[in-house]
Amino acid sequence: MSLNRVKVGIDGLDQMMDGGLVPGSITAIIGSYGTGKTSFALQFLWSGVLLGEHTIYISLEEREERIYEYMSQKGWDYKQYMNQFITVLKLDPSDFNLAISQIKNELPELIRSLGASRVVIDPISLFEDLFESNAMRRQEMFRFVEVLHDQQCTVVMTSETDQDNPYASRHNLIEYLCDTVIILRYVRPSDLTEVHLALEVVKMRLSSHSREIKPYEIQQDQIRVHSEANVF
User: What is the pLDDT of residues 103-129, one digit of tens each?
Assistant: First the structure.
């Protein structure tokens, strides 16, 4: 296991990734509704806060107070860290010019000014929706990812899955641009059995990682990845 890792704070998942994320890398967490994308992203953020790291949470969907409510429901005493180690911002993706400016221009400056080492964008797919053509989307997203790499922080982005493919992001793009890709999905053995949640680390540049599919469960105060178990 590499000693120089950024831990997500979910034991089973960190073990699957040789100890955690590669510092300065960009990760996509892709899943359909109800698979816990935001919970995974929040756990990554909170793990950094507890280590005294400056963190930024960019929400393109939920309001700031809703994000803090999620933290409170998990039993996290986030108030003592607000405006010091936690910065939560809600951006309005419906205003194209404003959203483009804030994400492309203002976010890098905010990262630098706060000295943030962990950044979450949830969900990046709403930003991707802003572009009218696939060519423009690909060009702008490539540039944006390059800018994030220059900030020397570790980034986690969430994305909804493609409507017709549970193994791909909505625009089939972000998984090619990110260094690490984690797929969250449902496993339904049959129509008459309980639905399970399972994850897979599909891709991880510059690192070895488990290629097994592992079950996980979302509890009130934590996420448990059963790295020793198999999906039935």
Answer: 777 888 889 999 999 999 999 998 898
- Return the structure tokens found at 56: 């930024």
The Cα–Cα gap between 48 and 42 comes to 10
Q: Cα dist. 49→58, 86, 130, 193 in Å? A: 15, 7, 31, 39
Question: Where do the domains of the chain lie, and which CATH numbers do they carry?
Answer: 24-186 (3.40.50.300)
The structure tokens listed for 1 are 């296991």
pLDDT tens digits, residue range 62-104?
Answer: 999 999 999 999 999 999 998 789 999 988 777 767 777 777 7
Longest CA span, the chain = 53
24 contacts 149 by C-beta, under 8 angstroms: yes
The rounded distance, in Å, linking the Cα atoms of 164 and 176 is 18
CA dist list (Å): 170 to 31, 39, 188: 10, 19, 22
Mapped onto helix, strand or coil, the DSSP state of residue 42 is helix
| Tokens, residue 224 | 């448990």
User: Mapping DSSP to helix (H, G, I), strand (E, B) and coil, where does residue 224 land?
Assistant: strand
Tell me the average pLDDT of the chain.
90
Cβ neighbors of 31 (< 8 A, separation 6 or more) are 37, 158, 160, 161, 183, 184, 185
- Write out the H or E segment, with its range, that includes residue 34: none
C-alpha to C-alpha distance for 141 and 143, rounded to whole angstroms: 5
72-86 as b/e: b if 16+ CB within 10 A: eebebebeebeeebb
